[in-house]
Amino acid sequence: MKFARAIWKLLVGIKDVLVLIFMLLFFGVLYAGLSARPDPVTDGVLALDLDGVVVEQAAKPDVAELLSGSGDRTKQYARRDLVAAIDEARTDDRVKAIALDLDGFLGGGQAALGDVAEALVRVRASGKPVIAYATGYSDDGYQLAAAASEVWLNPFGAVATVGPGGANLYLKGLLDKMGVTANIYRVGTYKAAVEPLTRNDMSPEARENAQALAGALLETWRQSVLKARPKAKLDAYMRDLPGAVDAAGGDLARAALTAGLVDKVADRRAFETRLAKLGGDDESAPGGYARIKLDSYIADRVETAPDGPIGIVTVAGNIVDGRAPAGTAGGDSIARAIERGLEDDAMKALVVRVDSPGGSVLASERIRQAILAAKAKDLPVVVSMGNVAASGGYWVATPADFIFAEPSTITGSIGVFGVLPSFEGTLAKLGLGADGVKTTPLSGEPDLLRGPSPEADRVLQASVESVYRRFLGIVAQSRNKSPQDIDNIAQGRVWDGGSARQLGLVDGFGGLDEAVAKAAQLAKLGEDERGVRYLERPVSFTDSLLETLAKEEEREEDESMADGFASFTGGQRQLESALADLHSVLAGPRIQVRCLECPSAAPAVLDRRQLGFFAALREWLF
Question: What's the whole-model pTM score?
């Protein structure tokens, strides 16, 4: 008994210590969150240190990531906040210039970056300097830098404008070696999302579609850059970059300077000296110049909770069933946000901002029904498409009275697929068997151990075809066309915004501002009644606390810099994204309306905490 009492006291003591540690952590985190305040905004240079990606809706920080301190989280900058801050800076006398530091920039998609670049051009036109700096400019980075009044490049840097394109990862050979069978059910000649599971190369149909889309995106990017820098010898530089480098004696930075793509080749110290002359010295600040931090400026100048009569709901990221945090389009979360907005009679119109490649059929339909509820209340509905509004992203756009897209928007992908892996080959390789009894032809189906039966295959394929017919009917009704007309331009084919307008899938070119103006017109609102409100999931105290802590953690991170050659590389992120996309397909709903081949601003990331083959493969590779 004495021994048992001793063990019991030990366990109680351990419990008390753990409780004490937890309480200390909790109150420490709470104090840090409550004591954190944005830095005051004074005269200086607005520092846009974009160390991450520009997205339509920034994802909230995850508590496990913050506690683990893994550092894997990619910083995300909301397009809306970024554009608003730049527009405010144009007329703010405290802001003497804008510094666009792109050394850690990872992209954002043409449509979103076009909005940011146009805001920078407006600042430049007002007479305020916009100074861009990087060691290496990618396509996305240079789209922003071209809008600056001065483009600086590190002497060891490069302008790596290589255009859209690249290789995809195909796993058919690997799955065969493992004995895994990918049972595919799909409709659409061009629905290429499942090809990585069924082929080791690109099909002729997928290649045709991808080549046409890449060509269209390159042309819209080229026009955007040349509009901002008309004297740049962009075409010759991209057509023969090796020749330009040879002519510059192997100096990549000098090649970019000779082509007129940059204005000055100098190191970071010279760049910061230039900023100090524009905004004033501050020896206590990083870089030695008076800087205005972006987060502080947004908190000081950007209205984050307006209450106008035009509701704006955002459908961003993969569309998933149930609830989901910002940055992922949870069907229930978005639908409830719309339904809450409809409870207020002061809302007179609805704008749906879509930046999604699709996902779950059920979640897409849940969102569509909520939008239809707005139409049932005689509210005009206008859709604004961002970088991507394809497959399920197009599904949710169909109730609109008017659809806006940018020429660089990726849309269409009207097709359906389902994936069901089975492991009969794996069991055979391991010398294992599987057997059982049936009471009906579909007992125990779909059988993942022996493979789906022919009867199960027929039912699953019929389900996919039924969803596709439903998809065609929804689009046909929305676009005032016949299902056959839509089928001719559907079949899973992906279109750029310019082609989509010609085909009648969208009604006009424009961004969110044009969509708001159209909604006001349809609602017959006066010029002074065109304010907006954002229909979003309520932000909890925990969300606010985690976001504050994430920002504090970002401030403490050391700056990193890569050489110019890094601008041409990105293999780890490319492979990680491919594995994460594949995992989401296999782990997601059995029937999906999703465009996997559509590029995303924020690349998919495979969570290190996920168990199984994909996590093991990722850990082995990296």
Answer: 0.86
